[in-house]
Specification:
By secondary structure, the chain is α/β, with parallel strands linked by helices. It is built from ten helices and 13 strands. It binds zinc ion (ZN).
Length: about 325
């Protein structure tokens, strides 16, 4: 028996045929249609499910269940996309619409929740009971596995660690508040911090790195710091400190076994985990006496979405 995991993103809808051990044995992808006003996301998800089954040479009789990971506000109980910003969707009853075609259990959840679950079931969180997953990308998302189960809050509207304030009256956040963690620890925030530092230091190697890449990116400061640039190193150190402030807050609330980092910035691996582990070991509450909270890099990378969506059926 197999599961189907569908990972809906701003660019593409990816489907995978997943074994119960977390192996993806067939795939099918469609580009996400974000332009057509009469766009039916359920219809495209249906095509991806059909395509995935065809690619794996199976029929619906071989499928144990279908899981969908979707960005935005999701009602996982009723199977409804309440709201999605980047694909412009409102109140779409995806699960009911798909049930007309597929007579198997179908579940949907927020993409970050799926990634967290995927890591705990199949990835770097395997074997841990309490896992906090944080994704450092365009925004800062997260997911919480408590006692082996996904924690979602009332009607699945919780688990948004990116919107805890770490600086009162700080930088404006997309959510309307000021000083959210996301406004300091996301890739967009790092780019803003990099640009500001570049302006103060015209001789910084960050200018060279940005020219090579054709733009200031999340890599600019890291690359220049690697070459010994002091201004860049300061950008990196400050940025990591912002990440750490949020991580220690989360550790103090949940005291999980492990905190996993995913998203674009997690590619920096030890350059993140070494200083962040140090911060955790020194600053988490009662650090000397309480159990250690490990800081690790998530392991499923681009497949976290598909595997996590499939893992919804294993809950
Ligand atoms: Zn916010």
């Amino acid at each position: 028996m197999h599961y189907i995991g569908v990972d809906v993103g701003g660019m593409s809808i990816k489907g995978g045929l997943v074994t119960k051990n977390g192996k993806i044995v067939a795939r099918f992808t469609l580009p996400t249609n974000v332009y057509d006003k009469n766009y039916s996301i359920s219809e495209d998800i249906r095509k991806v499910i059909e395509g995935t089954m065809q690619a794996g040479e199976v029929t619906i009789a071989d499928i144990e269940g279908i899981g969908i990971g979707q960005p935005g506000a999701i009602d996982s109980v009723r199977g409804v996309i309440r709201y999605s910003n980047n694909i412009a969707l409102e109140n779409v009853p995806v699960v009911d619409e798909l049930k007309k075609y597929f007579d198997v259990p179908i579940k949907i959840n927020n993409d970050a929740n799926c990634a967290a679950l995927g890591e705990q079931v199949f990835g770097a969180g395997k074997g841990y009971n309490d896992v906090v997953f944080v994704t450092l990308g365009t925004g800062v998302g997260g997911g919480f596995i408590i006692n082996g189960k996904l924690f979602e809050g009332r009607e699945c509207a919780g688990a948004e660690p990116g919107h805890m304030v770490i600086v009162t009256d700080g930088e404006k956040c997309n959510c309307g508040r000021k000083g959210c963690w996301e406004a300091y620890a996301s890739v967009s925030a790092l780019i803003r911090q990099t640009k500001a530092a570049m302006e103060t230091d015209p001789s910084s190697l960050m200018h060279e790195e940005a020219a090579k890449e054709g733009k200031v990116s999340g890599l600019t400061s890291f690359l220049a710091a690697k070459r010994g640039d002091k201004t860049a190193q300061k950008v990196v150190d400050t940025y990591i400190k912002y990440i750490g402030e949020g991580l220690v807050n989360l550790a103090n609330i949940f005291r999980p076994d492990v905190i996993l980092l995913g998203g674009a910035i997690s590619k920096e691996r030890e350059r993140l985990t070494v200083p962040l582990q140090k911060m955790m070991d020194e600053q988490s509450f009662g650090a000397k006496f309480n159990p250690r909270v490990e800081v690790k890099i998530a392991s499923l990378k681009n497949d976290a979405g598909i595997l996590g969506a499939a893992a919804l059926l294993l809950q």
